[in-house]
Task: inverse folding
């Protein structure tokens, strides 16, 4: 992927929001439903509980509304809505439905890049800003419980539901995005897939092995484009699939785990929502200051990978 051309109009994230279904499903409850245990799930994944329920459109409206409120923007001022989801409620028009419920009138489209979807959408959002949009709402939402086979202990403990959103506003100057990388390798489609109307099917060990490799590869490309090294990264916001994958990727990148945003213990793998959920948690806990370099990195079915480096606040100091 090319580096960002000098002079490209940039943006900054000015608001964020999340939505999680009310129903908590713990590992202990799962162990009553299938042949598994809390100990096994925690040791192999780091997940303790997850949230189940809601619709993709409903959760998106909730997180999107929060992000708009935090940005202090009337919905009518948004120029574009990008909704990342791999579990749409409808064959088409999911983003348009969210747009309508939020009272917006702008271009609205869905992006499906599986668990890399939010970073794909974030890069698309910056692309719209570069082409003249002033305010873009980017939402990542998935309701994976609807395509999870609850008789398959190899996948059921992993996947869950949620949503996260950010508002990007254009600024004078280059803005926050310093480097990005979008990747896909369709030859690996079979190791993690779901047919339309079917359940998630996965070769867990192979996905694990490939995931670490493609995360590291993509993150290194984004850091190279941004002209930074792992030592410069204040916070890495990785896809929340398995804490062991995050740990292995961080080790290879040379980023200490203390600098990783991790929420999967409470959320499980929420696909397109996982990165904005982890970002919002880090922001709400004061882990990011203006000027900090934040590395986003996702991977997922396809297999897809996506990463980007953001200077929080777009270079404006506190
Ligand atoms: N509870 C208890 N035992 C289970 C189990 C469960 N939920 N699921 C599998 N096992 C058993 C297996 O049957 C196997 O038993 P055996 O040794 O008697 O054959 C044993 O645990 C080990 O299984 P294995 O699949 O080798 O475990 P693992 O360490 O690879 O962990 C995953 C399995 C799925 C947690 C792990 O491979 C993984 O996270 N892969 C990546 C998945 C992912 O991130 N997908 C989304 C990408 S976006």
Result:
């Amino acid at each position: 992927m090319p580096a960002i051309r000098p002079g490209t109009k940039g943006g900054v994230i000015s608001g964020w929001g999340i939505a999680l279904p009310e129903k908590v499903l713990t590992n202990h409850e799962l162990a009553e439903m299938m042949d598994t245990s809390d100990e096994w799930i925690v040791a192999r994944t780091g997940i303790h509980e997850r949230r189940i329920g809601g619709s993709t459109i409903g959760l998106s409206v909730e997180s999107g509304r929060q992000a708009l409120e935090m940005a202090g923007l009337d919905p009518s001022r948004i120029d574009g809505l990008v909704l990342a989801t791999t579990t749409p409620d409808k064959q088409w028009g999911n983003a348009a439905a969210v747009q309508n419920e939020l009272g917006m009138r702008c271009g609205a489209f869905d992006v499906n890049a599986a668990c890399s979807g939010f970073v794909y959408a974030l890069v698309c959002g910056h692309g719209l800003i570069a082409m003249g949009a002033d305010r873009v709402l980017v939402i990542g939402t998935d309701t994976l419980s609807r395509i999870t086979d609850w008789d398959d202990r190899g996948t059921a403990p992993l996947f869950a539901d949620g949503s996260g959103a950010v508002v990007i506003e254009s600024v004078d100057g280059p803005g926050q995005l310093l480097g990005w990388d979008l990747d896909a390798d369709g030859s690996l489609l079979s190791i993690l897939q779901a047919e339309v109307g079917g359940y998630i099917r996965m070769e867990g060990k192979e996905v694990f092995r490939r995931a670490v490799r493609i995360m590291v590869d993509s993150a290194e490309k984004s850091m190279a484009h941004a002209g930074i090294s792992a030592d410069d990264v204040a916070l890495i916001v990785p896809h929340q699939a398995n804490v062991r994958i995050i740990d292995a990727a961080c080790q290879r990148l040379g980023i200490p785990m203390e600098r990783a945003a991790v929420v999967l213990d409470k959320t499980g793998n929420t696909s397109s929502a996982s990165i904005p959920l982890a970002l919002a948690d880090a922001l709400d806990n004061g882990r990011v200051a203006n000027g900090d370099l934040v590395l986003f990195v996702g991977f997922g079915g396809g297999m897809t990978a996506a990463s980007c480096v953001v200077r929080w606040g777009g270079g404006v100091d506190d």
